[in-house]
Structure formats: structure tokens, C-alpha cells
């Protein structure tokens, strides 16, 4: 009987600890800071004027999403790597994958001058846009499966594809900007549900806070 009670207590404690890990606890990492990541990456066009990047940072607690908006139309493409190196500096994003020999640079006008060039022997491209954002979403464990699965606010699946939140007018914390606004070239916002930042060379930066039912939204308006 005592063994049964002890086993029940251990199960309840494990469940409580698991639940605690599944709930956001405090603000996520700042999305506008210099960031170096390594892990599985997906890069591709979302539409004719948007390039998206999804990074699984070595199976960690967060999933990183990046978007570059371009004035010029972009030809459809999609590439993946199981082991890529990613460097983000606010106005530039550089992805290099030694396993696939590809190199991509996504930059705004302000970041174009100092972004590195494609190394010899690598394929890829360099894209210049008017806005580059970085969004961080928590990866939440779910019972009944192996490994880590994506929480309700993260619409990416385990294969690396992602349904990006394109409706920025309705996303985040409502109609107004939680940070940024008219005259701002950049903004960032973070809480326990998600965080994002954006750098804009045209228009103005607008960041809307994540809620329990909406992802954070940072865009150039």
C-alpha cells in the first residue's frame, strides 16, 4: 500500500513538473539582440514578396522565425538543412549550411553594406528587402508522444514547414502598436507567450504583443 501511495505521489509530481514546463514563465529572449543559432533550418518563399526562415535551435525550448519583405518579386524556392549556422544582427540574417553547401543572406538596405558575401563553392542567394523581422515562439512539450512537439501558438509542424501569420493587422495585441509606431524604424516586444522584433528601411515599425491566443506580430507598415 505504501509503495502504491509513493508511486502515485511521484506520478503527480512528474505531472506537475511537466505542466510547469508547458506554461510560459516570464518574457522570452530579446528578439532584437545579436543572435547566433545552430540547428535545423527551413528557408523558402511565403509569397512573391516574402521570404521566411524557420530555425529549430538544436532541439531547444524556442523556435525562431524570420521574415524578409521585398519590393521586388522573388522567384519561388525552398531549401532545408539539418545542420546550419545562423547569425542575426537586426538588419541582416546570414544562413550557412555546410551539409548542403548553401549560403543565404537576407538583409535590409541598412544591412546590405556590411553583410558577408557568399563563400566560394557555395550555392544560394543574397536578398535585399525593406523589412526584416525575428519572432521567437516557445516550443511546448506534449504528453503521449516522443520528442518535443509544437505548442498551440506555434503553427509550424515537426517537418519544418510553417504557416506564417500573414494577417498582421489582426495579430498580436489588437489594432494599435504595443511598441514602435509612426516614425519608428525598429521595435521589439516580448512576454511569456512570444516575442518579436523588426527593422524597417521604409514605412514604420509596428510591434504587437503576443497573447494566449495570438502570436506576437512585428511588421513594417
What would you note in describing this structure?
The chain has a domain at 35-165. It is 10% helix and 41% strand. The chain has one helix at 2-22; strands at residues 35-47, 50-56, 62-69, 78-88, 92-97, 102-108, 123-129, 131-138, 179-180, 186-191, 194-200, 205-208, 217-220. The strands form two sheets. It has a ten-stranded mixed beta sheet, with no helix packed on it. It is globular, with a radius of gyration of 19 Å. The model is unreliable at 1-24, 142-153 and 165-174 (pLDDT under 50).
N-to-C SSE string, H for helix and E for strand: HEEEEEEEEEEEEE
Widest sheet: strand ordering: 7-6-5-4-1-2-3-8-11-10
Q: How many whole angstroms does the radius of gyration measure? A: 19 Å
Termini distance? Answer: 65 Å
General shape? globular
Helix content: under 10%
Query: What class do helices, strands and sheet pairing give?
Result: mainly beta
Residue share in β-strands: 35-45%
Low-pLDDT runs of 5+ residues are 1-24, 142-153, 165-174
List how many beta strands DSSP finds.
13
Compute the average pLDDT.
75
* Biggest beta sheet attributes: 10 strands, mixed
Keywords:
single chain; 221 residues; mainly beta; three-stranded antiparallel β-sheet; 1 helix; 10% helix; globular
In short:
The chain has one helix at residues 2-22; strands at residues 35-47, 50-56, 62-69, 78-88, 92-97, 102-108, 123-129, 131-138, 179-180, 186-191, 194-200, 205-208, 217-220. It is mostly beta strands and 221 residues long.
